[in-house]
From TrEMBL, chains A, B:
PROSITE patterns: ADH_IRON_1, ADH_IRON_2. It comes from Paenibacillus violae. This is Iron-containing alcohol dehydrogenase. The keyword Membrane does not apply. SUPFAM superfamilies: Dehydroquinate synthase-like.
Length: 388, 388
């Protein structure tokens, strides 16, 4: 393990009916609220009316910003910052999935900064402790954004998708009611499942030694996802399956399994490059890229992929090398993701090799990316080609 | 799962050399410090001097209270409260194991309360948000007190050992340096290991349905403890083993595996009664009582004990009933605890049946205790008799 600091001050309010906690939680931060949300599903499902009702009960002044994109855009972030400044708002209530939450974090950090908020996303400037406080109502099990300080923002004009992290943009509270995720359609549910598993992978494939507990907790999450997912995708209104998946998503990226380890994240960087250029769903991109990334790293360091196979996919290790086990583990993963309806090739989204160079360039945040096996420009190009 | 709230604002500072974080963390809370510690081992090991050095560097005013007992006593809590009031201190730095930390929490909660602090321990009065802020330097992997709001206090005059919990007494930060646990002798190390496993059990044997992730995380902790413990007890100065055990202890009781489940805790109530009457080590008492508790509940609900056997002790379930598996699981647990040197009978501490009635009475905090299988007065008496 490495030396580490862990501090996660988000209050989770989990379960049926937790929406009514809004009136208890918000007043501590003020009553002038920016209500941030995504598409129309929130209005169709009736959630919008319920949230407005809660806000009215505490006499809140509400300014709305809807239409946050699935890959939230810098232009939207700037709109939010302006609305808060113009209306002197003191709290952001983000209602939606990870994209709305990520957008809220960038807005929160951008308000007290005089320069361009993109500087913060590019990590040139740190978010300050004067960032606007955020509360969230989550409607999708996927990103874990409800209990961390991560935010991924797309600058569409520049084809760039970048992320920042700050303790000052952790949600003060997050409301997780499994029923609010019933309306998520099957394909989005699948993308969320892939995203959750990918978050575990990015931390499981770390570059540190001797972190057995963190790895076992990662395996616990993966096994629970794998057990629940096939039932959930065929029974989207099942409370218990939604409930388990929601908690899986939160614990997969709240810092728990990253304690004391150098995490990887190369596959996320590559996916961000792909979806910055082609605007495909993040979870879909990950389902395509992760098996190819695993193949690539297993050629050098098969042991952790083999461990995944034995401990999560119940492979029998008797008489097999790590290389054989790793190959079987990747096969098991692809089989599982295919079984729930995830894509397997970039061509499933009509992506061909035309933009490989641009995507490779965008993925390379440094000369090398990732830690489990650091990837060069050439490695990334190869992984992308193998994903076509 | 049940509806739940999870909020754990303790900042963990984990790893070699983290003691130097004291000077960064304390000033936010003030510089008039009550330094609370236990026996002389802290002075012998040199830790005392290092802490004083850190406090001097920030120009802190330090008032000391040493000699906190292994089962911390109400009288000591009251001394601490008086010292804070007399000297107008604004921060408690607790250096030691769970008993010192628990004592700090009761002091912290007692200061702003005009009545007798025992009212707070008895849960007649709630700890207030004006409780004195606490920071901790942990020297023993066991109670998890470094990342929760629990405090267990003994009123020796009344033979009562009681506990309270409050969000207002969570440590603001906890420093966990595995090297600071090197000086823990073998027997205390073993008691800590039993305590950690028992904390997982109290939450694993819950009375709720459908909490697969929480159970798997509990199993992850148990497997990691079982893998590490035999190596640790034979190599007490091994950094990596101490490191893993320290993290096991923290995650075993920081609320993670209790999310959304009705936990049990009957065995702890019984052990508190035993050690309130006989002043034996808490971990020793648990090692004796837990197998007998498991036998008792397995007669009614063997399924979770059986699951423990299969998933943690790798029992082969083929052709076996849950009752058979449960019996084998308990046998495996006793074998494991015996192998690392834990006691198995109350008579190992010279305890006979004389005080069974008093202990039974003290354990019964209500007409029934525990949730997985609620225990009556008679059940507790029987478990105690079986433990002699």
């Amino acid at each position: 393990m490495e030396k580490f600091e862990f501090y996660n001050p988000t209050k989770l309010l989990f379960g049926k009916g937790q929406l009514s906690s809004l009136k208890k939680e918000i007043p501590a931060y003020g009553k002038r609220v920016l209500l941030l949300y995504g598409g129309g599903s929130m209005k169709k499902s009736g959630l919008y009316d319920k949230v407005i009702h809660e806000l009215k009960e505490i006499g809140a002044t509400v300014v709305e910003l809807g239409g946050v994109e699935p890959n939230p855009r810098l232009t939207t972030v700037k709109k939010g910052i302006n609305l808060i400044k113009e209306n002197q708002l003191d709290f952001i209530l983000a209602v939606g999935g990870g994209s709305v939450l990520d957008c809220a974090k960038a807005i929160a950090a951008g308000v007290p900064y005089d320069g361009d908020v993109w500087d913060i996303v590019l990590k040139k400037v740190k978010a300050s402790s004067n960032s606007v406080p955020i509360g969230t109502v989550l409607t999708l099990a996927a990103t874990g954004s409800e209990m961390n300080g991560n935010s991924v923002i797309t600058n569409w004009e520049e084809n760039e998708k970048k992320s920042f992290n700050s303790i000052h943009v952790y949600p003060r509270f997050s409301i997780l009611d499994p029923e609010l995720t019933f309306s998520v359609p099957r394909d989005q549910t699948v993308y969320g499942i892939v995203d959750i598993m990918s978050h575990v992978f990015e931390q499981y494939f770390h570059a540190s030694s001797h972190a057995p507990l963190q790895e076992r907790i990662g395996e616990a999450i993966l096994r629970t996802v794998i057990e629940t997912a096939p039932k959930l995708v065929n029974d989207l209104n099942n409370y218990e399956y939604r409930e388990v998946m929601l908690l899986n998503g939160t614990l997969a990226l709240n810092g728990l399994t990253a304690m004391g380890v150098k995490t990887d994240w190369a596959t996320h960087y590559i996916e961000h490059a792909v979806s910055a250029v082609h605007d495909i769903p993040h979870g879909g991109g990950l389902a395509i890229l992760f098996p190819r990334w695993m193949e690539h790293v297993a050629a050098v360091r098969p042991e952790k992929v083999a461990q995944l196979g034995v401990r999560v996919f119940d492979l029998d290790p008797a008489g097999k090398t790590d290389t054989q086990l790793a190959a079987e583990a990747i096969e098991s993963l692809v089989k599982f993701w295919t079984s729930i309806g995830a894509p397997t090739k970039l061509s499933d989204y009509g992506i061909d090799d035309k933009e490989i160079e641009l995507m490779t360039e965008r993925a390379m945040l440094a000369d090398q990316i990732g830690n489990y096996v650091p990837l060069s420009n050439e490695d990334v190009r190869k992984i992308l080609r193998n994903s076509l």
